[in-house]
Specification:
Blueprint: H1 12-44, H2 47-54, H3 57-83, H4 87-114, H5 116-121, H6 127-140, H7 144-159, H8 163-187, H9 191-215, H10 232-266, H11 269-294, H12 296-305, H13 309-336, H14 338-345, H15 353-363, H16 369-381, H17 385-411, H18 414-445
Helix pairs in contact: 1-2, 1-8, 1-9, 1-11, 2-6, 2-11, 3-4, 3-7, 3-10, 4-7, 4-10, 6-9, 7-8, 7-9, 8-9, 10-17, 11-13, 11-16, 12-13, 12-16, 13-16, 15-18, 16-17, 16-18, 17-18
Length: about 450
């Protein structure tokens, strides 16, 4: 039997390693799944199909936002119910989560089916890009239920501490997607619709595996009857917690929508294709950093609650140091071989000097993510919920929007890259100042 981590006494470096590796691997697997469709469409269909599907990213965040609402609230309530041994609450988690997943999927799927053309047209794309995007979106939205329910159910497995089990289910679905997509596109000639259908099939399997896990009694908590039912005694708690994560995700949706609209406004087809390749690559490389900081919250939160202030301070320092080191490792290949890396997503794409500079500048953002991410996790861990919520939302309104609008006005599409770099650096700087004051307050209170 594996020894459970002792958050109060174990070496912080060992805790970081033990908790972060499964978290990073799990998020990497999910990230790879998100790249499968665009990778195969780029190779089998062409650059227009790749760009059209990639431009759907802001619309896909709508499903992600609903998923976060259900998953974050359900997982939080379950974790506390397990810790306090509230068996009756535990029994209500899954029925309530299933009901919320069904409601959320209905809300996004029905309008998505009826108004698919109008919804995709909001992105501002036209011609072949619009045709490819619409074809993919019409199929993609049909699988919203499997995405919302599957990820929320898998989040419950993580909440009970079985991160490796949750990762195994994710890995199986990703492998299926990797196998089906080239068959549907390259062999059956289903086009971009084939990529969407393979994703739905993978998420259906993902949902089935997690359901069987609970039905067969593999969970460590009392799951109660496997049924769909709103449980009003826990509903308010689930929604209040989930809404905080939901609101942050909505602010990100607004950010990405504006960003992609500016790309359409100022960019040619080639410029849009390059931006989407660079954006996807950056998102993929940022996943290990986000996975790293997922493991930081219990370490800081538990030690803060136990009045182990010196371990809180040291924990923040260690996580920032490791995050910056990891960021350096991640960007070295891009700095050295930018064209080779981009060609993985865009075959035979020759980069000019401006594009090489832009992608290196964007990847440099990975070096400031450790400061901003660790600060937000710190605020969440010590109960500074308002800071943790309002700062990311304020970032979009008072940093991102004015900076990117001003710079694109004067520099065109190049202003998007300048704006992203400048905004991320300024945001990290603001969070560093605020977190420094909070850490000083913690140290002063503890007499350190």
């Amino acid at each position: 039997m594996k020894k459970k981590p002792d958050f109060i006494n174990d070496n912080l470096w060992k805790l970081l390693l033990k908790l972060s590796v499964p978290s990073i691997l799990g998020m990497m697997v999910i990230s790879i799944n998100g790249l499968v469709d665009i990778f195969y469409t780029s190779y089998f269909i062409g650059r227009e199909a790749f760009t059209g599907i990639s431009m759907l990213f802001p619309l896909m965040l709508v499903v992600t936002s609903v998923t976060v609402l259900v998953a974050a609230g359900s997982a939080s309530v379950l974790s506390r119910a397990i810790g306090s041994n509230q068996v009756e609450v535990q029994k209500k988690i899954i029925p309530n989560m299933m009901a919320l997943s069904l409601i959320g999927a209905t809300v996004v799927t029905i309008p998505g089916i009826i108004f698919s053309k109008e919804i995709v047209s909001v992105l501002g794309i036209s011609g072949e890009l619009f045709t490819y995007a619409l074809e993919y979106y019409k199929i993609y939205i049909l699988g919203a239920l499997f995405s919302i329910y599957g990820l929320s159910a898998n989040g419950l497995i993580r909440a009970e501490g079985k991160i490796e089990q949750a990762m195994r289910f994710t890995l199986v679905s990703v492998i299926l997607n990797l196998l089906l997509t080239p068959i549907f596109i390259g062999v059956l000639h289903m086009g971009v619709a084939g990529a969407a259908w393979s994703s739905i099939a993978a998420m259906f399997l993902y949902s089935l595996l997690t359901s069987l896990y609970f039905i067969l009694g593999k969970a460590t908590f009392n799951t109660g009857r496997f049924r769909i039912r709103l449980e009003y005694t826990i509903l308010k708690n689930v929604l209040s917690i989930g809404f905080s994560a939901f609101s942050m995700q909505l602010s990100n949706l607004f950010r990405q929508f504006l960003l992609f609209r500016l790309v359409v406004l100022y960019g040619t087809l080639e410029a849009m294709a390059f931006f989407n390749a660079a954006f996807r690559l950056f998102t993929f490389l940022a996943i290990p950093l986000l996975g790293l900081y997922q493991s930081m919250q219990p370490i800081i939160g538990i030690n803060y609650g136990a009045n182990k202030s010196h371990r809180c301070l040291k924990g923040v320092y260690i996580y920032r140091l490791v995050g910056i080191a990891l960021g350096i490792v991640l960007i070295i290949p891009i700095l050295a071989f930018p064209e080779t890396i981009i060609n993985i997503i865009l075959p035979n794409k020759a980069l000019n000097e401006t594009e090489i500079f832009n992608i290196r500048m964007i990847m440099g953002i990975l070096l400031v993510i450790p400061i901003s991410s660790s600060s937000i996790i710190l605020f969440q861990s010590i109960g500074e919920a308002k800071l943790a919520t309002l700062l990311p939302i304020g970032r979009q309104l008072f940093l991102f929007v004015p900076i990117v609008l001003i710079l694109t006005k004067y520099f065109g599409i190049e202003g998007i890259y300048y704006g992203l770099a400048l905004e991320n650096v300024l945001y990290a700087f603001v969070l560093w100042i605020i977190s420094r004051k909070i850490l000083q307050r913690i140290a002063l209170k503890a007499g350190l």
